[in-house]
Amino acid sequence: MRQINYYTVAFLFLLSILMDLPVSGQGSYCLVLHGGAGSMDPSSIPPEKQKEYIFHLNKALTLGDSVLSHGGTSTEAVVKTVSYLEDCPLFNAGKGAVFAWNGRNELDASVMEGASLKAGAISGVQTVKNPIKAAVSVMNHSAHVFLSGKGAEEYARLQGLEMVPNRYFFTQNRYESLKKLKERERARNQNDNHGTVGCVALDTYGNLSAGTSTGGMTGKRYGRIGDAPVIGAGTYADNKSCAVSCTGHGEYFIRLGVARDVALQMEYLGIPLEQAAGNVLKKLTAMGGTGGFIALDRSGNITMPFNTSGMFRGFIKSTGEKEIAIFAGEK
User: Fold this and answer.
1) 15 class by beta-carbon count within 10 Å (0-12 exposed, 13-18 middle, 19+ buried)
2) pLDDT at residue 177, as a whole number
3) The pairing of beta strand 107-113 with beta strand 235-237
4) Cα gap 132→33, rounded to integer Å
5) 254, 227 in Cβ contact below 8 A?
6) Is 218 a catalytic residue?
7) Among residues 160, 185, 299, 311, which is most buried (max CB within 10 A)?
8) What pLDDT, in 10s, does the model give residues 19-29?
9) Closest among 150, 155, 141, 154 to 111, alpha carbons compared
């Protein structure tokens, strides 16, 4: 009878485990972002302004790529990317947030990890410099998932996050939009409902994450909360399916549970990412909702569908492939 070499058996068992696990620095990675969807065309955004948007979208992609290429996690990359977009006054998040009816900026954000299904969200904060950092702190350091208003601000302060006066978020063009709305010089248009920023990422460990941040809707009242901080509506991530971040008229995204719906179609119907996303966008359009979303699966497949005339968007992969676009039909 042949004698069993237990060292060989143990080695082969360990090797089989390691071969099934992504290793930092060896696995591929990918990062996708958006800066809001809405009614836009080349004539409405001058060439110089387009260049400015592209510059900042590229910078955000570069920052996220640096995190992932150095072995950082997908959550770290998402937070780094979204924080940059929050600090850029071009987008409706953080520094460039739109104004509520009361003349103040009220900010929302959320984040979710695909490996653990852990999530964190905050809404209605007025003095947290980077809401996405507060959301990830809620996820990692609190017993809760969703904090709002003064309680969320108190939590952020106790966690040592950077706080700023509400006037920090002021930008003149956003304030003029509120004034015009109040003066009823124009009816509300689609751009009042859009501008959210978000990011989804796949890291070298094979894990997905998603994050979203917004200033909401121009002239919003009564403590209105959109889809961005709502897990399953504006943000969702699950390693079994995909990571999703949405932008658009939040009321519709909440009613449809858009982000979760994409993931569920993949998980329960066994269909690929692009098909699932297309099905959900059709639902959104049929209901009268406008906007779009970015989605990424664990194989690195990307989709960025929207039903408006434009969506600020882009991606970068470990292969070096990169794309940035603004208008419909662009590659």
Assistant:
1) exposed
2) 86
3) unpaired
4) 14
5) yes
6) no
7) 311
8) 444 444 469 99
9) 141
Question: Which residues 6+ apart lie within 8 Å of 185 measured at CB?
Answer: none
pLDDT at res. 23: 40
Q: Name the pTM for this structure.
A: 0.88
Tell me the pLDDT of the chain averaged across its residues.
Answer: 90
Bridge-based pairing state of the strands 119-125 and 146-148: parallel
Q: What amino acid is encoded at 99 in this protein?
A: F
Q: Are 237 and 209 in contact (CB under 8 A)?
A: yes
CATH superfamily of 23-327: (Glycosyl)asparaginase (3.60.20.30)
CA distance linking residue 181 with residue 167, whole number of Å: 20
Q: Which of 73, 75, 196, 308 is catalytic?
A: 196
CA atoms of 29 and 8, how far apart (whole Å): 33
How many Cβ atoms are within 10 Å of 329's Cβ, its own excluded?
A: 7
Nearest Cα neighbor of 298 from 16, 30, 81 is 30
Residue 293 has what pLDDT?
98
Kindly indicate the confidence band of residue 44, based on its pLDDT and cuts at 50, 70 and 90.
confident
Q: Is 243 helix (H, G, I), strand (E, B) or coil?
A: strand
Res 4: pLDDT: 46
Q: Residue 313: which of 20, 6, 53 has the closest Cα?
A: 53
DSSP string, 117-178: --EEEEEEESSBS-HHHHHHHHHHHSS-SEEEHHHHHHHHHHTT--B--GGGG--HHHHHHH
